[in-house]
Specification:
The complex is a heterodimer of chains A (256) and B (257). Chain A has 256 residues and is an alpha/beta fold. Chain A has eight helices and ten strands. The N and C termini of chain A lie far apart (53 Å). By secondary structure, chain B is an all-alpha fold. Chain B has one domain. Classes of the chains: A alpha/beta (256), B mainly alpha (257). Chains A and B meet through strand 6 and helix 3 of A and helix 5 of B.
């Protein structure tokens, strides 16, 4: 069976800085893969390359067996309809009320009538535990946790086949973080979607992942089921999941 | 050569920026003419650019017309050529001052706001979010603004022309002792369609330039609040310079023999 997303030899650099250096990753359909890695290790760049927001210098990305690198125009738009994404800071459109944010993909992408789209938006808001009244508010009036929920509702509104989560729990208190984790697991399961998340929050990774992959120096250095993460036998992974400053991963901190 | 090196680097950077702007412009224009078009968004931008700029453009026009009449009078009185004042006012306003001043005011008001809004959308990933929701940002953000700029500035300038001439008329007839009826008759006899039309063509071009610069600098802003600030400044400065530059060439196109 072809994997849902198949990445081979992905290279991406910005100027002299090599961010992705021959990255390989397979994501099977209806599986939830979490990519862990330190800040600045290129996790967000990976997501943006798959979505076609950034163009890698070399390598191949296939979605359902279809090459998406350098794809553009209508084809790219068609492939992007398969995706939903929850952004790190939610990236809600602050010129639109909450319900229109949630319904955006339906109204603009699928040309649905506004009334029908609003109904679905309110259902999706309910699915993430928000009341219909919230739909009339502007995104600026929401707290961080609520913004995340609205972002999640927007990501699932078009019932996408693949959902990306960019640091879903960053900036939230531990309880709200867990609420979001639960919602992610619930929504992904209900839709039967394939999920790719990036995070450095291990509690979140353990909760939402089927499989975990560790990104280090532009490559996936370890890849396995979530249950095996504690017995990976990989010193880098061990250091990361236990959050030790000492170990093979050296943070680029200059001596004062 | 330490002198030539920075010179060459600056020149290359200039060429690079020009190329990027040309590419941005061609992409934007192609999205303006291909469906889907968003009438609701175009309407909102038209109100933002046209209606809300009326007070500032109107005030600029009336004071410009007033000061034109007053200054021409102090100059022309020395040669007993006061009767030329209506002609000077109407030609200066319709050909030059109407479009240029309206363009500059709109650059400050609208161009800056656009750069700030689109720039903030860029740094908060809202533009990436548009892409992931299968909505082209050029179509959704840039095209409506360009269309609104291109169509609303000529209307604004037409109104500015009328208000500017009125300013000259008020000063001439109430302060300088002109006969109001003669003043208006001289104005209408002297002004030619080409004067007004050249001004409106300029206005359309300026409207396009202002919105293009606002969108371009906003779309390409980088690095948080500071980047958005720089984008706003660049949008206003580049739009103002382009307006003055294009103003000369359009004038040459219309009036040079």
């Amino acid at each position: 069976m072809t994997p849902k997303i198949r990445i081979r030899g992905l290279h991406k650099s910005f100027g002299d800085k090599v961010v992705l250096d021959g990255l390989d990753l397979d994501i099977e359909a209806a599986q939830s893969v979490v990519v862990i890695g330190g800040s600045g290790s290129g996790k967000s760049v990976l997501l943006k390359c798959i979505l076609g927001l950034l163009t890698p210098e070399a390598g191949s990305i296939q979605v359902d067996g279809e090459e998406v690198v350098r794809m553009n125009g209508r084809d790219l738009e068609r492939v992007r309809r398969k995706f939903g994404m929850l952004f790190q800071n939610s990236a809600l459109f602050d010129s639109l009320p909450v319900w229109e944010n949630v319904a955006f993909g339906l109204i603009q992408g699928e040309r649905m009538e506004r009334d029908a789209a609003k109904k679905i938006a309110i259902e999706k808001l309910a699915a993430v535990g928000l009341k219909p009244e919230v739909g009339e508010l502007s995104p600026a009036e929401l707290s961080g946790g609520m913004r995340k929920r609205v972002g999640l509702a927007r990501a699932i509104a078009t019932a996408p086949e693949i959902i990306f989560f960019d640091e879903p729990t960053t900036g939230l208190d531990p309880i709200m973080g867990d609420v979001i984790n639960d919602l992610i697991v619930k929504c992904v399961r209900q839709l039967g979607a394939t999920a790719l998340s990036i995070t450095h929050d291990m509690a979140s990774a353990r909760k939402i992942a089927d499989r975990i992959a560790m990104l280090y120096q532009g490559k996936i250095i370890w890849h396995g089921p979530v249950a095996e993460i504690d017995s990976s036998g990989n010193a880098h992974v061990d250091q990361f999941i236990h959050g030790r400053a000492e170990g093979p991963i050296e943070m680029q901190v200059r001596a004062i | 050569m330490p002198i030539l090196q920075p010179l060459g680097r600056t020149f290359l950077l200039f060429l690079q920026a020009t190329g990027r702007i040309v590419l941005f412009t061609s992409t934007s224009v192609s999205h303006c003419v291909r469906p889907p078009i968003y009438p609701r968004l175009i309407g909102r931008q038209m109100i933002e650019i046209g209606y809300y700029s009326l007070p500032v453009v109107g005030l600029t026009a009336i004071f410009t017309g007033m000061v034109l009449a007053l200054q021409s009078y102090t100059g022309f009185a020395r040669f007993s050529a006061e009767s030329a004042i209506p002609n000077v006012v109407v030609v200066s306003i319709t050909r030059e001052l109407g479009p240029v001043l309206a363009g500059l005011m709109v650059a400050g008001r609208v161009g800056a706001a656009m750069a700030a809004e689109i720039g903030t959308m860029r740094v908060t990933e809202q533009i990436d979010a548009l892409d992931t929701l299968a909505t082209n940002p050029f179509k959704y953000l840039v095209a409506p603004r360009l269309i609104a700029g291109l169509t609303m500035l000529p209307i604004l300038v037409l109104i500015a022309d009328i208000i500017g001439v009125f300013g000259g008329y008020v000063v001439s007839s109430y302060k300088l002792g002109f006969n109001p009826a003669t003043y208006l008759k001289n104005t209408m006899d002297f002004v030619e369609p080409q004067d007004v039309i050249s001004g409106l063509v300029k206005a359309g071009v300026f409207g396009f330039l202002v919105t293009l610069m606002g969108c371009y600098h906003g779309y390409n802003s980088r690095g948080g609040a500071q980047g958005v600030g720089a984008a706003t400044t660049n949008a206003v400065v580049s739009a103002s310079i382009l307006i003055l530059c294009f103003n000369y060439f359009i004038t040459e196109l219309f009036f040079a023999r």
